């Protein structure tokens, strides 16, 4: 099994347990408690290259991440540093996350929030809305085409923005034909083995129709990389480990977006 298939199988088991503890009908009854809308897509459409700053506790590739700061301190620093939006990784078994992290981030910051997880079930979409997510991630590599299409339509019906993530040309073609999303993420990381190739964004960008909001994800840690992505037409970048490893996330964000060609490793 690939790393991705293992995570998807683990996610399916976790969703089944949560559904037993809290049936879907009861979860849906909590939708009226959603807070005010924070449009995620609009935040990425502003002039210049937008940064989606990510909070995660660990990853299969990097292990434990962070410098001992609390979630509240980190997301507040992201907002002060000029991030356009937040990404909160909520997968538990492999990344140490939870919906509690998303709820806490929403309380600490006014930025729109992407729930980053391995979404495989409608139940997770309702969870996301109830917890205060403004957007969710759908990963093409993790979903059959019809399943991705159904989840995309169900998410938009719940007023959730959807970032659809691809890694290669075949996935991009499939996604454009199935749902033609406004938000397309290009993951420079191959989720089958977690290897990273930042040139992946450049390779796929030419095949994305005009008018889409394009997000480059993974492996970004230098101002020069971001400047080149902006030059070729990328709208936003998703950055996590580089910022979480920094002693000063505010300065790290400002350095990445402020025109200094610096290595933040």
What does this structure look like?
With 265 residues, the protein is α/β, with parallel strands linked by helices. It has a single domain, classed as Aldolase class I (TIM Barrel), CATH 3.20.20.70. The protein has twelve helices and ten strands. The strands form two sheets. Strands 1-4-5-6-7-8-9-10 form an eight-stranded parallel β-barrel, surrounded by seven helices. A two-stranded antiparallel sheet has the order 2-3. It is globular. The protein starts with a helix and ends in an 8-residue tail after the last helix.
Q: Provide the β-strand percentage band.
A: 15-25%
The level 1 CATH classification is Alpha Beta
Strand arrangement in the largest pleated sheet: 1-4-5-6-7-8-9-10
Instruction: Count structural domains.
Output: 1
CA(first)-CA(last) distance: 31 Å
Number of strands: 10
What's the overall geometry? globular
Q: Please provide the ordered H/E string of secondary-structure elements.
A: HHHEEEHEHEHEHEHEHEHEHH
**CATH superfamily caption:** Aldolase class I
Structural class: alpha/beta
CATH topology: TIM Barrel
Helix content: 40-55%
Helical segment count: 12
Question: What does the largest sheet look like?
Answer: 8 strands, parallel, barrel
- What is the CATH architecture assignment? Alpha-Beta Barrel
Uncertain stretches: 259-265
Report Rg: 17 Å
How confident overall, as mean pLDDT? 92
